[in-house]
Amino acid sequence: MSFADKISMLMDRPGGDNAQKDDVPWWMRYAGRGLGTVGSFIAIILGLINCTGIILMNVSCLIAGVWQMLAGFIVIVCEAPCCCFFIDYVQTLSDRIETRPYWNKAALYIGLALPPFFMCFFSVSTWLGSGMIFGTGIIYGMMALGKKASIDDMRTSAANLEAGVGQPTSAPRANLVTNEQPFSFTGPPAK
């Protein structure tokens, strides 16, 4: 058993199945979970700082700060439920989120991170706090894309496309317009 396997066994959730369900690298899974956990703590703190915008009568920054704190709380509930064990149904919600595909988590985190940018754009606390939640969404989006093909597979695919193997037999938009003609340049009009 390697050192990484021992660490992953220690970091696994109790009751979770330890079998790998996909081919996402271990470091990317830990990067998503780590950035989500640390970034949500920072987003909560910076959201509180962002709420001080009410002193300057900037209500949109107050709303952005509250949204950022709520987004940080939701991310920490999804990524590190052990931090919120005092709330009743946190583990159930976290387990439900864990069973969803990665692109669902990516869409949730990116959707939670964007509104504070639009409400309080020029605040550094918005950029750092919501930016970390946005980065977590980006990591989960990359995990949803999956593993890149090997160089041999990509070369074979490129060679097949060059040779015309696997090309569609009709124009890509032939089903949209039945009488389409190729574009051609006829030159400037004669005077």
Your description of this structure?
By secondary structure, the protein is mainly alpha-helical. The chain has a domain at 25-145. 61% of the residues lie in helices and 0% in strands. The protein has seven helices and no strands. The protein has helices at residues 3-11, 26-50, 59-79, 90-98, 102-119, 124-145, 151-163. α2 packs antiparallel against α6. The longest helix is centred in the N-terminal third of the chain and has 25 residues, at 26-50. The protein starts with a helix and ends in a 28-residue tail after the last helix. 24% of the residues are buried. Residues 15-20 have low confidence and may be disordered.
Rg (C-alpha, Å): 24 Å
Secondary-structure element series: HHHHHHH
User: What is the number of E strands?
Assistant: 0
Stretches with pLDDT under 50, minimum 5 residues: 15-20
Shape estimate: flat
Indicate the mean pLDDT: 82
- Judged by helices, strands and strand pairing, the structural class is mainly alpha
Percent of residues in beta strands = under 5%
Summarize the main sheet: none
Taking the alpha carbons of the first and last residues, their distance comes to 83 Å
The amount of helix comes to 55-70%
Number of helices: 7
